[in-house]
Task: inverse folding
């Protein structure tokens, strides 16, 4: 049992489990009833996505310094009690169920999902590295 960190919209891996979309907005132009069948996500969890304002900062980050500023602010957002409890829950569930969390970004290194991976690991989550 473990969590996979994935790019939403990609082919699912065997035994991936429930795919959770940690994004602010659903995929554009995709009917709601097609989200799962088109490999976007089964469950939408925008609560652990960066706020729209912060997302703009992350997307505009070109230097390591700008990315580090985004990462620091995202970590601060995820430290809020309601968000922290969700991360704790996901980490705990990773020991009993297979599921994945993800975002649309092509480059994980410049995506909040890389930070989400770190936050979950810090909470003791079992994560499959591929």
Result:
């Amino acid at each position: 049992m473990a969590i996979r960190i994935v790019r939403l919209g990609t082919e699912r891996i065997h035994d991936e489990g429930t795919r959770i979309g940690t994004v602010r907005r659903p995929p554009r132009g995709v009917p709601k009833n097609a989200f799962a069948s088109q490999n976007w996500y089964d469950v939408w969890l925008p609560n652990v996505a960066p706020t729209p304002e912060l997302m703009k900062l992350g997307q505009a980050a070109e230097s390591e310094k700008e990315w580090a500023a985004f990462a620091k602010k995202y970590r601060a957002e995820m430290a809020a009690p309601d968000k922290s409890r969700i991360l704790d829950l996901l980490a705990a569930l990773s020991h009993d169920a297979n599921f994945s969390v993800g975002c649309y970004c092509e480059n994980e290194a410049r995506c909040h999902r890389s930070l989400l991976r770190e936050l979950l690991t810090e909470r003791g989550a079992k994560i499959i590295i591929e």
About this structure: The CA atoms of residues 113 and 125 lie 14 Å apart. The chain has a mean pLDDT of 96. The first helix runs from residue 52 to 60.
